[in-house]
Amino acid sequence: MSRSEGKVAKRYARALFELTPVPELDQVNGVVAAFAAALSGSLELRHALVNPGIPLSERIGAAQDVARAIGGANHTVLTFLGVVLENGRSDVFEAMSAEFAARVAQLKRILSLEIVSAFPLEEAERREINERIQREFGTAAALTWSVDPSIVGGLVVTAG
Known about the structure:
The protein has helices at residues 3-19, 25-41, 43-50, 56-70, 75-86, 93-107, 123-137, and strands at residues 111-117, 141-147, 155-159. The protein is mainly α. A three-stranded mixed β-sheet has the order 2-1-3. The longest helix is centred in the N-terminal third of the chain and has 17 residues, at 3-19. It is globular, with a radius of gyration of 18 Å.
């Protein structure tokens, strides 16, 4: 993603965050994340949402139908999807979703960490690492796990 796309994603995520009432943040975060996953996992959906041969109103309707099918889509989410499509920004929706999730986590004081290991870790090891992080930092942690055999050993932990 280019630098300008990152700025656009942050701007849209901030706007959605500011428009969402605090009690609805988790629900909106879930719907936005699920929609981003659907968009990422479906080439047909991505093409349908950017196809200029399909009227904008139909593209917006399709996106809103997908959000409703995911469940929990409220007026804020449906309006947000319309604005994203009207402005031709569906290409950075996944980044918007990640930025929105980061804002929600920051509000809830949830530490977001990416942990890379040289080999896959057992579930018990992951749980132990998560518990240790929570003990050391005194806050809940959202952990993303990945494997990179090129590292010699141990873990690479990245925050932020």
